[in-house]
Design goal:
Number of helices: 3
Helix content: 25-40%
Distance between the termini: 21 Å
Structural class: alpha+beta
Strand order of the largest sheet: 1-2-3
Shape: globular
Low-confidence stretches: none
Strand content: 15-25%
Order of helices and strands: HEEEHH
Number of strands: 3
Amino acid sequence: MPKLAGVNHLAAIAALLKVGFVVARQGSHVVLKRENDQRILTIPRHNPINAFTMGGIIRDAGLSVDEFKKLLP
């Protein structure tokens, strides 16, 4: 998996909202879910989210790193 520099949690959430995820709940983490395939993602409210954690979130979302980078604002 290519390296991904740390990403702001708000930018990561905005990118995932573009591919159909919706905010299910918020607290110290933001939980996103997608109705059509029952995926649930947990995004920590850390700035920046480290590359290892972000890589796992991207993989769980069913995206590649390149696809995710194109979605970033």
